[in-house]
Amino acid sequence: MAIEEYFSKPIIEKIATNYYKNENRLDAHFVGKDYDVAIIGVEECINSVENRSCGDAPNIIRKQLYALQSNFKKLNICDLGNVKGNTAKDTYAAVKDIVSELAEKNIVSIILGGSQDFTLSIFNGLKTRQPKLNVTIVDNKIDLGQDDHDFHSHSFVSHLLNEKQLRRLEMLAYQSYFVPENQLDFLKKHNQCAVRLGMVRANIGQIEPIIRDTDLLSFDMSAIKQSDSPAYLYANPNGLTAQEACQLSLFAGYSDRIKTFGVFEMNPDFDRNHQSAALAAQMIWHFLEGLNNRQKDYPIKSIDAYEKYIVQQEQLDENIVFYQNPVNNRWWIEIPNAAGEKEIYACCRQEYEESKSGRIPDSWIRYYKK
């Protein structure tokens, strides 16, 4: 099946607003062929828990997105339209096939949801092209569900954890009053990590290395506080700010590994003055800004091209090896896995400095023998 047959194509000229009447507006830069980025709408929400109208979000986000200015001279962007399927099962399969084909062509996909359970379909599409995948999910809760046989937007993570090709899962910005201890224990049992909202907000710069390693970032808009993003039935007073959501999106764009960026669960029925739609559009804009300014670092470039630092760590009774790109001051750390092989993880300079003072780096604790 040709990829074009999966879509009911929106007409960009009718969707775009007219806030800026000049040729530098984002929608004026869309191309039909030889593109680097593909925007895809998913209007399906049958498996969203109490947030069914989120399926109406894609075109509403587009109205805000196409009004923004384009500064992305290195990117050719195409909107493939909205995925069409007679059933939810059809749409899951279509998203999987579309993402897989785009990944094969090294085209980054941006998914406008729709419900967040499509994260699993995206993963299934990417895994056909890559043996091991790193996934980052931004959410105020951990969607593990209660029953392994049930599948919906609040249970898809448990299905994701059963995937053999999942190398690493990072849950960012969860709020403890929404997450029972047994869920955190379950993640730990599966050697996966979760970072509380407070830790994300305390030093958001230290989240960049986590996202730098990701292949797929799935962003639930409920992770953003109500005053900044009201478009959710159970929007919460606490959460990420709009600026922090855009910062995390920018980090995702900077990643040289990123294949797909998805924004989910925005419910237009609860939006005020298109506030959440505008924020979702600006998050995508920041993601594009990051893509436009990627550094082509590791893993595109060999880790041996960087400066190497060896630190004797007495607590571990072995050396820790760090690498630095002196051009942009990005850092990586070498950590042994369960098989005794050395793996490379992104880290920050602070971890190098802490290691020199005798402290075990956070990344080592998170990923040692993972």
Can you lay out the helices and strands and say which pair or pack?
Layout: E1 7-8, H1 12-15, E2 37-42, H2 57-65, E3 77-83, H3 88-104, E4 108-112, H4 118-126, E5 133-138, H5 156-161, E6 166-174, H6 181-189, E7 193-196, H7 197-202, H8 208-212, E8 216-220, H9 242-254, E9 260-264, H10 275-292, E10 307-313, E11 318-325, E12 330-336, E13 342-347, H11 349-356, H12 362-367
Parallel strand pairs: 2-3, 2-4, 4-9, 5-6, 5-8, 6-7, 8-9
Antiparallel strand pairs: 1-3, 10-11, 11-12, 12-13
Helix pairs in contact: 2-10, 3-4, 9-10
Brief sketch in words of this structure:
With 370 residues, the protein is of the alpha/beta class. It is built from 12 helices and 13 strands. The strands form 2 sheets. A 9-stranded mixed sheet has the order 1-3-2-4-9-8-5-6-7, with helices on both faces.
What does it look like?
Helix 2 (57-65) crosses helix 10 (275-292) and helix 3 packs parallel to helix 4. Strand 10 (307-313) and strand 11 (318-325) form a beta hairpin. The chain is an alpha/beta fold. The protein has a nine-stranded mixed sheet, sandwiched between helices. It has two domains: 3-292, Ureohydrolase domain (Arginase, Chain A, 3-Layer(aba) Sandwich); 303-367, no CATH class. It is 30% helix and 21% strand. The longest helix has 18 residues, at 275-292. The chain starts with 6 loop residues before the first strand and ends with a helix.
